[in-house]
Amino acid sequence: MQRLYVDAPLNAGLQFSADRAQANYLLNVLRMGEGSPLLLFNGKEGEWLAHITPTGRKACDIVVDEQTRPQSEAPDLHYLFAPIKAARLDYMAQKAVEMGAGVLRPVMTQHTQGSNIKIDKVRANMLEACEQCGVLHIPQLHELTPLKQVIKNWRECDPDRQLIFCDEGEGSQNPLAALEPIEKGRPLAVLIGPEGGFSEEERSLLRAQDFVTPIPLGPRVLRADTAAVAALAVVQSKLGDWF
Predict the structure, then answer these.
(1) Residue pLDDT tens, the chain, 243 long
(2) Which of 39, 60, 105, 175 could form a disulfide with 142 if both were Cys (CB 3.0 to 4.6 A apart)?
(3) Which residues, including other chains, have CB under 8 Å from residue 150's CB and lie 6 or more apart?
(4) Nearest alpha carbon to residue 123 among 105, 135, 141
(5) Residue 12 half-sphere exposure, CB side, CA atoms within 13 Å?
(6) DSSP string spanning the chain?
(7) Could you confirm whether domain 77-238 is CATH 3.40.1280.10?
(8) What are the domain boundaries of the chain?
């Protein structure tokens, strides 16, 4: 069944007009008609069954019927990443949401190739992933911040969270062994570098912090968007909500 994010409160019996883009999508792309069912969520009040009532060729109302799922707790996993090329950044944002990231934080590194990240586009891709994959929460998206500033303020902002640093220079090839010392249940964040990798200065800075755990991602060289999926899968299976 089609799922749709709406920026509106949800409760049984509520009726509201779909915005222009949503109405066009429902009526003209999906060819939905009078009474067609769909699922709604707003990131706050769970998931609701609803149906549409066309009010014109390009307009429709949405009528909320009943709740199908209560609101779930937002995941506590943070995902930090250096911006990459647009199409691959879209993919990475979607996959991070699918893999259970509750917070996405773009960071500027010395080898980051582009600083003009389009926050609205990243957010749109996050919402699309939520719609398609049954996610009820809407992950937080932070503004682009220099990596050095993030590290400097880490203890003040999030003192208990351990930062898992995916380091292509790590001598070992086994990420599971590197994660073994971290106690289960501890708040976590995962950091993926840019296409050119971290600089030696950044690697030294990260490795000097007691809240940072460097891990390898196996014997192969991975692109940044592939590394994101691999790293999140490893962390979720070892320390996250997969175990």
Answers:
(1) 899 999 989 999 999 999 999 999 999 999 999 999 999 999 999 999 999 999 988 899 999 999 999 999 999 999 999 998 888 899 999 999 999 999 999 999 999 877 778 899 999 999 999 999 999 999 999 999 999 999 999 999 999 999 999 987 766 788 999 999 999 999 999 999 998 889 999 999 999 999 999 999 888 888 989 999 999 999 999 999 886
(2) 105
(3) 80, 105, 107
(4) 141
(5) 4
(6) --EEE-SS---TT-EEEPPHHHHHIIIIIS---TT-EEEEE-SSS-EEEEEEEEEETTEEEEEEEEEEEPPPPPP-EEEEE----HHHHHHHHHHHHHTTEEEEEEEE-TT-S-----HHHHHHHHHHHHHHHT--S--EEPPPEEHHHHHHTHHHH-TTPEEEEE-TT-S-S-HHHHHTTSPTT--EEEEE--TT---HHHHHHHHT-TTEEEE---SS---HHHHHHHHHHHHHHHTSTT-
(7) yes
(8) 3-69, 77-238
